[in-house]
Structure formats: structure tokens, C-alpha cells
User: What shape does this take?
Amino acid sequence: MSPTSYHQFFRTATGHTPYGYQCRLACGPGADPDRPDTLRDGATCESRLINIPTGLGKTEAVTLAWLWNRVHLGSNQWPRRLVYCLPMRTLAEQTRKKVEGWLVRHDLLWDGEPSTHPGRVGVHLLMGGEDAGEWDLHPEESAILIGTQDMLLSRALNRGYGMSRYRWPMHFGLLNNDCLWVMDETQLMGVGVETSAQLDGFRDRLRLPTFGNCPTWWMSATLESSRLATVDHPEPETGWQTVTLSGAERAAGRPHELITAQKPISSATAKLSAATQAGYAKTMAELARGRHQPGTLTLVVVNSVARAREIYEALTKGKSPLYPPEKVALIHSRFRPPDRRRHEELLWGADDRIVIATQAVEAGVDISARLLITELAPWASLVQRIGRCNRRADLPDAEVLWVDIQAGEETDALALPYTAWELAEARTALKKLDQASPEVLCGVVVPERPVIRPVIRRRDLVDLFDTTPDLCGQDLDISRYVRDGEDNDAQFFWREIAEGQTPTSSEPDPVRAELCRVGMRDAAKFLKSEKTRAWRWNPLEEIWELAGAPRPGAVYLVAAASGGYHEALGWTGDSKHRPTPCPPPAAGESEAYAADSAVFAHAWQTLAEHTRKVVAQVSALAALVNEPPLTTALSQAAAWHDLGKAHEEFQKMLQGGERGREGELWAKSARRSGRCARRGFRHELASALAWLLAGPPDATERDLIAYLIAAHHGKVRLSIRSLPGESGNPAEPDALFARGVWQGDKLPSAALDGFTTPEIALDLSFMQMGEGPHGPSWLARSVALRDRLGPFRLAYLETLLRAADARASRSLPA
Assistant: This one.
């Protein structure tokens, strides 16, 4: 039976009744959980700050508010995609499990089958190595996208970490249109807060317009709201819209119980200083073992991965370990997923256990420790760590111990990744406390030292629209807008590569199970070592190049013999620790600019038949735009998008010399693979040129149609230039050439979707600067189009055509 009130809806999903603030978020400011008549309608969806103490269900509040309004009530004012952005990978996987459980209880979870998708909600974890479910091919469906700030913000800036560069524009388009962004645990996000605020300011119909509503919610118990006031995102005259607990919630009921949960706090005898550093790990291990009570959870949180590993080993190593290794877990962000999973199973368990962790458990992790031992950290971090102790207000003997770090100079390495000033301010506040309930902590004010962070500007965002590398093969670096300098990561994976050998071009791309995040400082030190053999894939040259200096977000293949990783400890950087590589994909190869794997579809399909299918798919998706000139442009682009496949060289590749195929123009081949004889040949460039030369002269949005045709594989965008090492027609050495297309190439007459094109001689004069025989250059047309429609809307339009094309291709028989 369909729930008639949000009270019923929430209880079905979670098993308990909603708090007042959860009702107000979903049903509007007048919603009262004690009055069912106020819980039947929805609320407006606008950018806001959600300032709620830890442990009071912020994740379920925002997710179920979106689900109630968007899916249950069918409100189009609420965006069709919920983007849940978290600071850490551990939180992302936990959040997915929770969300899927709520959807299952409402029978709304999409099972991955296309036939069951309508009306259901897909939950997709956006991580490096893979994106389950190909969510970007279903832009019309409601979806929940969960990921870390690295993966989500990089995609929102059109430079997606850990994914194919040729799909960057799709994610850029989908994450900046018709989305509700939720930035959770913002106190851990550094510059990600300012970047999210700027993006919220850009996604304004008067600046860089979007399709559909695209607000942002920032959630934290400790965020300094002044950080949201950036140059393009000023604070409104009436202040930020803010959701907080009401006076009644603070005074009575379950919220009152949780925010007044008793947590006696005191200073531990252990201390970290230059004098105690050598024996510190053993001291901490003995402290945890001595104060631990069997049958409970003891959580030890330290500030660095190295110290966490050392304490873990001090507890578990040797013939007579301090505590049984099977009851001790190590949690940090430098694990491959399968290895981390074994530790997390113990973390989420209910039995006797000691967990040694870093900031990876600092926020959002739904555990409740009887004993918390934490190193001194900045105040906002301490508040979150303390939130993991007696989280459910059911442990009468809970306690918190804090371990002082006696850092001397401001740059003392013992204080890293923080500063001695931050630790000193937190120490002053802690010395005044003997209780650490959320209510007490909310009353403590600790000043934050002003930090000058880079702020992405409108011009920067517009420049990122073009994903074409520069002449040196480099991309614009966005890392300074994603994480603070020391927090950026690269990703490593290990394969068996024989000594003296280089990976071949057939080496498959990594899957998520293989990838391990590594901090930039550690990555640089490891890659610089003479003992390290590591490579990075070059999709243009289609070779594995020596790694060189690491770049944030980049993915590197490391020979297993070079070491650096231990299954039980995670990343160590020690060449003696040689991991067993995870099983690589059974088939596949690394992405390449010249690859056209989608055309080798195990079945023959004519150009006319494929075109008809794509036009039909586009017609179904065009309604999302709801602007007739643009929907017409999408349909015309779909009709012409693959005409370039009629090129003689492309047909040779598809047919592969097979007899009996010469009399037809093909779009799909039953062959397993093939390569065009011309280096880097892009059929979509030939298609776009053909449209500009022979498309109906009275067509509206002529340049938009040309751009959509050219961009439908993400490999031809704002500029057209020859590839490095590419050569043209040897018979005409002075003739223009680019992307495998030569000046004067002819496309034969072709039947498409209800019409037939004439023979067309291709003219590459569009690649030259200034006015040409056919009007403005390609660059001038593309830039004018980008600036007129805005980068968000233009990327969304190209995504619709790409999704339609991919879906039509997937309809072929296997």
C-alpha cells in the first residue's frame, strides 16, 4: 500500500519515526511529526545549509526527503539525480548500503535490468576504475550517485579522475544539470567547500544556465558558514537557508537523548613528542589493550597512515601478540577494496574488537565505541571523532581519551597533516572539558585560522569545457580545486610485468578492485626510486609510458616486483612488500583515441538501420530538454551523426575483406576488432563536415547540430587539429588533414533516416583560423555556441545524443 504520509514513508524505509527536522526538510517548514496532515505534501528544493549534530540521521534525512518528493510525489521541481558527495571512500560504500536498503523496503531499487528501470531508482558508486550500471546512458531516470569529492568534483569540472577521458563531457553534463548536490561532512573537504559553492553560483540561469533545478545542500555539525560566501556565491541578504534542530527537539525526545549522551573525556598518559616517538606505537598499543573491555569496541584514531600501521603491528605481530589479530582491524584510505573489506567487516561487527584508524572513520561512519582514544587534532575533527563514541546513548561507561601531540615549531612533522597552531587551539579547548556530549561540544567556540584557498572562477570553468589536450599532451590541472594540496592522490594498481618488459597495448584497464589511492608525496617518492617500474597509459600514442612525476587523479600501473603494498597493511611504499596482483579483467584493452570498439558488435547492421534506431532513441530523450529548437537539433544530429562511416577507409575496416559485404554501407560489424588504416581516423569529424557542407540550408541551430555530431564520441570538440605524428595525402603534401580525414575525401551517397544524402567532397578549411569559403572556422563556431548556450547545457545536449547512440548499439543481438 502506498504511504499517505511522510511519517509512514520514513518508517517503512528505516524502521523508526522521523525527527522533526527530517520532516521539515521533506515536507516544508510547517511539518510537524505529531500532525499527520502536515506530512502529506512536499517542500521546495533550494540550496541550503544543514547544521545538525552528529548521530542524528542526516544521511537518511536528505535521501528520503529527495525520494519522497522526486519519486513518491513526482515533483519535477526536485532534481532527478541526487549526487551524494563525501570526503572519504569508506563513507561512500557505507552510504550506498544504507540507501539501497531504504529503496529495497519501498521496492524502488533498480536491479540493473533495462526492462525494470522505469519508475525505479538506480544507486551508483562513482569510484575510480568502473562506474556500475552505466548510469550515464539513462539520463531520463531517477538515480542516486554516491562518491568521494575527488571523483565527483573532478567530474563536475570535466576532468573526471579514474575514468575514460572521452566520457568526461557526459559526466560533466549530467552532474551540472537536474541534480541535487549533497556535500556531506564538509569540515573534511578543504577547498572542496569553496569549489562546491562556486559551482552552485555558476549553475544559475542568469550566469551559466542549466536544464532543470540544480541546488546544493551542505551538511555538517561544524562547518563555518562564511566559507560558502565566495566571489560568485555571495551570502543572501536574508542569510543562508539553514536547517537546525528546533528548541523542542533539543529539550526532549530522542534527539535530546542523543545530544546529551554522556562521554567523560580526559587526557591520556601517552604523549607523542620527539622524545617518545621511537616507542610511541608500542605505548599506544598497550594503552588500547589495557583500557579495552572484552566484548566492546575500542576505537583508536590517529592522524597519519604510518602511525596507524605501526600501532596495528604493535598489537598484532609476534608469537605472542598483545591482542588476537583476528579481533584487530586497521582502517585507512590506502587499501585496495578487497583488502580493506576484510578489515571493515570487523569494524561493522558487533563483537569484541579493537579498531586502529585514521581520519577515514572521522565522520559519518555509523559505529558506537565504548572507548575512544584519539590523537590531538583540529577542533572540527575532534568533534567528529568524538561522535563515534556512545553514538546511540546506550553505553553508560563510555569514555574518551585524548593523546597530546607536543609539536614544537609550526612546521613540526609530528603535527602533520595539521599545523601546530591548530593543535594548540584544540588543546586549549580540551583542557576545559570533562564531558564531551554533542550538546557540550556545540557550545565550544574554537577560532579557525583564515586559510586562503584557490577559488575557481567562471573563466576557469569555461576553459575546462574543451577536453582536448594541449600540444604537449597535457590537460589543465584541477587538483587545486578538488582537495587541499597535501590531500590529493594518485591511484596505483599492480600487475605481473616481467623484468625488462613493458606492458603491451592489450593490457586491460584496471577495475576498481585493483586500485589503491596514494598521497602525492608518497607517490612521488615511490616513483622516483630506481627500484620502481611504473607506467602511465597514453591513449593517443597507445603505449604505456614511464610514469614520471605523478599527477593528481592519474592512474599508474606498477610492476608487482616493485612492491609498495602489503595486503594486511595497505600502502607502505616499501619495495620489500610485494603484493599479489588482483585478477585483472579477463578481456579488454586500454582506451585509445583511434579505437572504435563499439562498431564491432558481433552482428552486421546497416548504416540506415542504425541511424533509424538512434533517431528513435533521441526522440525519447529529447523531451528532457523541453525546448523545440533544441529537440529538433538533436533529431537532425542523430540523423547525420554516423554519415562519416560511409568513408571508404572506415568501410574497409568494418568489412575486413569479407566477401559479400561490399554492396552495402555498414555501421556495425560482426568482426571482433579492427583498426582503420589511417592513423586516428574519426568518422564523426567526417560526419560533421558533411553536415556543414550538405545539410539543409534552412536548418536552424546549424552549428549546434555540427557540434553534436562531431562530439558524439568525446574525441572531437572545440578545436580541429592534426594529431602528433599524423600524415596526410602523400599525393598532395600541401593539402589539409586532421584526425584521419584528408582534404577532398569523398563520402558516397547514403540512405539515412528517410532521406538520402548526395556524394559529398569533404572540405577541411573549417580547421583554419578566420573566415573561410564556408563562413566562420570550426573554433569560432564552437566557442560562440558554448558561450551562447553555456557549457552545462551544451554538454548535456551532447550527452543525450551519446546516450541514444550507445543504447541503440546495445539493442543489437549478442
Q: What stands out?
A: The two ends are 39 Å apart (CA to CA). The mean pLDDT is 91. Residues 508 and 589 are 4 Å apart (CA to CA). The first strand starts at residue 48 and ends at 50.
